[in-house]
Amino acid sequence: METKWLEDFISLVETNNFSRSAQLRHVTQPAFSRRIQSLENWLGTDLVDRTSYPTRITPAGLVFYEQALEMLGQINGVRELLRNRRAAAQTSIDLAVPHTLSLTFVPKWLTALEQQFAPINSRLMALNVHDAVLQLVEGGCDLLLCYHHPRQPVQLDPGRYDMLVMGHEALRAYARCDKSREPEFVLPGRKNAPLPFLSYTHSAYLARMVDLILHDAKPSLHLETHYETDMAEGLKMMALEGRGIAFLPESAVTREVKSKLLARADNGNDQWTIEMEIRLYRERPSAQRPGKPVVAKLWDFLVMQNLHS
User: Fold this and answer.
1) How far apart are CA 181 and CA 160, in angstroms?
2) I need a surface site. Which of 54, 117, 185, 299 has the fewest CB within 10 A?
């Protein structure tokens, strides 16, 4: 059994709505339903009465709801206890990072820190943006590195969390190069002949960035979705196969563009580009949660570095 199944079921009982709970849990409704079914299979009993509408929880489900709350509380309590003991004796830095930044930004950043600050022992958790933010909020990491855009902000209380802007990232359209080293597909496409589109799944943060591009596009872009995944690296590999246009972070395709394997598919038109900040967050130290000394030293160094840049 996975703890996220408990969280899913608790959400379903409290909303009494599969669609709403799926939205709150940042997954598709089919994926959410499969997780509830997995929990039922593990327990060997039905928790949801699927013969009626609206959704009703079975008597067994109501009993399990109380147990689920208690189990989740115990699990989180033990985790917090062990993390506090581990953090007190540990000198490594735990980083929660979206998949793309874990492959593009983090390796070079850590190398630079080794040269400019000090050798760092680190543990990286590559997650989607939502889960990476949750790691910070729930005390599962020391630092969160993520994308930010004012129209799709990361909602973290500035009274509790410190933030530094570490860089910027451009998201734009790319396609495979043909033999003449020109992109095989070029925006905007035509209504009667839409371009093959390699898309992020709707729960991915970069999907919301692409939605902003498509919403603001003038003229409108004509695209037909042929493939979906939540990882930019997966879209890049499909683009390299010539399967269509993908909106990718610039840092993720630097080598491919330099080697003329991929090219911008927008004719250099920056109106189909969106700029994001790369932000670093930490929980502000307090008497109750002082954090690790190594994190405090690194943060002070980064603050001074930003002031002089």
Assistant:
1) 50
2) 54
193/50 same-domain check: no
Residue 194: CB atoms within 10 Å: 15
Residues 6+ apart with CB under 8 A from 123: 92, 93, 94, 95
Pairing of strands 195-200, 245-249: parallel
DSSP 8-state code for residue 217: -
SS3 content of the chain, % helix, strand, coil (to 5): 45, 25, 30
Q: Which of 139, 148, 102, 304 is nearest to 296 (CA)?
A: 304
Evaluate if residue 125 carries a pLDDT over 90. yes
50: Cβ contacts below 8 Å, ≥ 6 apart: none
Question: What does the pLDDT look like over 219-267, one tens digit per residue?
Answer: 899 999 999 999 999 999 999 999 999 999 999 999 999 999 999 999 9
DSSP codes joined into one string, 17-41: -HHHHHHHTTS-HHHHHHHHHHHHH
Q: Is the peptide bond before 196 cis (omega within 30 degrees of 0)?
A: no
- pLDDT value for 129: 87
User: How many of the other CB atoms lie within 10 Å of CB of 146?
Assistant: 24
Structurally, the chain folds into a number of domains equal to 2
Q: Domain span at residue 60?
A: 3-85
Instruction: Identify residue 188 by its one-letter amino acid code.
Output: P
CA distance 307 to 172: 30
* Domain termination residue (choose one: 85, 120, 146): 85
Using CA atoms, how far apart are residues 110 and 120, in angstroms rounded to an integer?
Answer: 8
127-183 confidence digits (pLDDT tens): 988 889 989 998 889 999 999 999 998 889 999 999 999 999 999 999 999 999 999
d(CA 256, CA 181): 12
Please count the CA atoms within 13 angstroms of the CA of 25 that sit on its side-chain side. Answer: 27
